[in-house]
Amino acid sequence: MSFADLGLSAPLLQALAQLGYPAPTPVQQQAIPGVLAGRDLMAAAQTGTGKTAAFALPLLQRLAAEEQRAGSNSIRALVLVPTRELAEQVMTSFRTYGEGLPVSCYAAYGGVSLNPQMMRMRRGVDILVATPGRLIDLFTKNAVKFRELQTLVLDEADRMLDLGFADDLDILFQALPKKRQTLLFSATFSDEIRSMAKARLRDPLSIEVSPRNTAAKTVTQWVVPCDKKRKTELFLYMRKDRGWGQVLVFVKTKKGCDELVGRLQAKQIAADTIHGDRPQASRLKALEAFKAGEVQILVATDVAARGLDIDDLPQVVNFDLPLQAEDYIHRIGRTGRAGASGEAISLVCADEAPLLAAIETLLKQTLSRDEEPGFEPSHRLPQTGPATGAPKPPKKPKTGGNRKVPGNWEGFDDFAAAKPKRPGNAPRPAGRAPRPAGKPRGR
Ligand code: AMP
What we know:
Elements: H1 10-19, H2 26-36, E1 41-44, H3 51-65, E2 75-80, H4 84-97, E3 105-108, H5 114-122, E4 125-130, H6 132-140, E5 151-154, H7 157-162, H8 166-175, E6 181-186, H9 191-200, E7 205-208, E8 219-225, H10 231-241, E9 247-250, H11 254-266, E10 271-274, H12 280-291, E11 297-300, E12 315-318, H13 325-332, E13 342-348, H14 353-363, E14 368-369, E15 384-385, E16 408-409, H15 412-417
Adenosine monophosphate binds at residues 21-22, 24-25, 28, 47-53, 309, 337-338.
């Protein structure tokens, strides 16, 4: 199937040819005709599947076909996104695909001054990409009016709920015209998302391009058991040993990000961070420098886990496991994009066994383990695996307070109580991660 078969107009086909997209991805094949026909849509698609183009292309086509442009302070389409980074990225996609079309696009998000955004809105914007909080600010100041709005896109709806935007979304739903097209994209479909879709969508076309809660198949994932205090050393060793180029590294806390970057920079490695405490301008600068290849290691918290569109990123490293298992899927979605192959490596210490078990339960698979010689942990990483029956809660969780710990894991309490001892290697499940060709195991 070609893009032309989907009924896209000549200027869009030309833009796609220039970008070198060979053919529509599955989500594009399924979504574009329905969106062009004005249908509501509920799509289960994670980043990396081409979901942005799946809504951007038909929206651009529909808006360009109408003579009327957005009136002052008005918008004709609204794309709600969870993060500033995603807002920038989605806007850039619209501008790239819509080059040459008489459709304006603008992104409004928090963390930057409100005034320029209010000024820009005066001229009207055909497609506004916005984070919910900032949009409410603009709306309450009368800088945005919704009377001309035809289409609402909820991009990464699950993430918006995770980040606590449910109330903001309710306020916005009250303000938006009831008669509209609504497109909902979400990597995962929780019961909350399903009930939102039920309440807000009209007879939606339902598409699912990857089974629920699965990671991209093109990503090779494995776990490197290690001691917590040796993670930086191990990361530096693996980077050198395996000849990694640019790597996106995920760390649990902002403080952890800054510490790791400090240690990398002390070793003259070009590294930078993206996390919520950094001003938006610095976050964008770090991302741009990473994209331009000036920064080798980008260290991020989960704020950056979604919406980062970085071409050809072969490795993602989980320096810490995420507290929410679903974030693991989003994190590793930064590699193996649009069919390319990628590696997702998790450095896991004994404390993180419950988090690993939760991830394995979500993935319904046991992740391969591959210890690095010389870095075998002295605190054994307990055996883990997907939960088969009722979750087995820890007696005394060492991490995570009252957090529920789904999944199977053994020996956690033993570990907490016992004196550190030399590990017996945890039995390695089949399917051990391959070593890149031509990269001998260094010592
Ligand atoms: P997304 O899932 O929207 O985050 O897109 C992931 C990446 O796939 C982006 O870098 C897009 O530029 C790219 N992409 C989108 N559609 C296609 C396509 N049909 N062929 C090749 N690459 C694509």
